[in-house]
Design a protein that fits this description.
By secondary structure, the chain is an alpha+beta fold. The protein has a 7-stranded mixed sheet. It has a 5-stranded mixed sheet with strand order 23-22-24-25-26, with helices on both faces. A 4-stranded mixed sheet has the order 8-6-7-9. Helix 3 (49-68) packs across helix 13. Bound molecules: adenosine-5'-triphosphate.
Amino acid sequence: MTATTAAADASTNQTKSMDDIMALCKRRGFIFQASEIYGGINGFWDYGPLGAQLKKNLRDAWWQDCVMKGAGGQLGPNGKPVSIVPVDSCIIQNPKVWEASGHVGGFNDPMVDCRESKRRYRADHVRVMFSGASGTDPQRMFAFIEGDDDSRNQALKKMQKYLKDGYEPHNVGYSDLMSFDWSAFAERIVGPDVATPGTLTPPRAFNLMFPTVIGATGDIEDDKAYLRPETAQGIFINFKNVVDSTRVALPFGIAQTGKAFRNEVTPRNFTFRSREFEQMEIEFFCHPSETKDWYDFWKKWRMQWWESIGLGGDNLILREHDADELAHYAKEGAGTSDIEYRFPFTAPGYGELEGIADRTDFDLKQHKEHSGAKLEYFDTTRGELAKNGQPKGERYLPHVIEPSAGLDRGVLAILCESYTKDDSRPSPEIMKFHPRIAPIKAAVFPLVNKDGMPEMATKLTLELRQRFGHLGFIESDAKQSIGKRYARMDEAGCPFCFTIDGESLTDQTVTMRDRDTGAQERMAMDKVGDFLAGKLGVDSSSSLG
Ligand code: ATP
């Protein structure tokens, strides 16, 4: 491989190693396995000091740009500012919510169990390779997990051992197999983690919601409730409350961020598929005739937003769903698209970061029918004109465009995108976070820990904390050589370091060192705050940033 193609592969994430990224995440305190000292718990992850701040910065950027600025402070397709208000609803709601939304009856992923290994797999994630000429029945099939190279290689090895001369290996999807007569093939399939065929059960429905019991003496049948599998329903059930308690008028959106829980059959790929994760969702309510305009608007702007915080290039795509992929509610609507990112574990393919769907009036209609509440909106700007020339008004159930993003997947994409290896640098691993998202905004170092330099460093650190502490860490470090301190900050993704040296004592200047280029620049100490404000994109005249 030439140097140019290696660089291109790195920028498209093809050669980045998830093992390296996960090792750095643990070493520098971004992400830890949950319950690690007890051996962990599959599908759950804790965020360490840097990870918690990185996640907060991403959530805050979403909140400020989507909610407070109203889709970035631009005009909507109706020529008016975009109006969005937040809610913060409970994780546990009346279980009837999930009956109405379809989650109790329909939130099922077909899955298969392996009787021998006791492992469980999501049926649509299992693929099967088999030997045999086209048109003949395969005698042996080797199952593996899609996107998992180890599992695929194991299946390939097992198949090669079995393969007869002259037979070409073929790949078929598991779902294709499900359309065959299962009983005819089950005995020929070798499961992903075993050597003998016939250990997989037929695909069965598996409800992804976590049940819980309400009350100290509660009963699992009578007092059953669920941890929410999405934040969206907490918005729909509060639609009427928001309309009645605020001055919002259609079109407008309701947003919320928060935890969601899904008992995923096969949690994997680090935090990508977890059982506890956080969502950032907007339900944007509009007149049924306007859905196409708003759908197109949100698709475009959400792509721009992910680009604005540092994702982009070939690693980010917008993919419109084919008709056969559409959710039940989306069949009638303007469409569904995914914003997808090329993670190292999906490369050269992509994984979903955010879904943008026209949910029509499906959810409000369901809640109206199940609860009996009147959820129609009375729109005074529509309807026939009365004698006085004013519209008489129109009562209708709004349609909804939903941009629904995963916060943990966003953080993971940022970690993968930022991870850079540069062997020409003393510390080759650098996290090139966008300054707005970086958990550490700046570091201040006395060159040596004496001669008045620590005092000056403390003064500058405190000034910067006063001004930028609400955005992230301002670090101060006096230990080890200056090169080692820079290297530590590169790994943590701190964009700017400021060093106080002998010269600083006489002329009140400091050395600014840039993470991405390693370049150094001398600047007046009292200009450091404004410099940082400019780089972080915050108002330099305001002490609140
Ligand atoms: P997938 O097809 O990957 O299971 P989904 O289409 O079921 O995802 P949605 O229900 O649309 O996902 O949820 C919205 C967002 O929530 C997704 O785009 C993703 O970013 C995030 N998300 C969903 N499931 C998980 C999970 N198990 N772990 C982490 N994030 C998730």
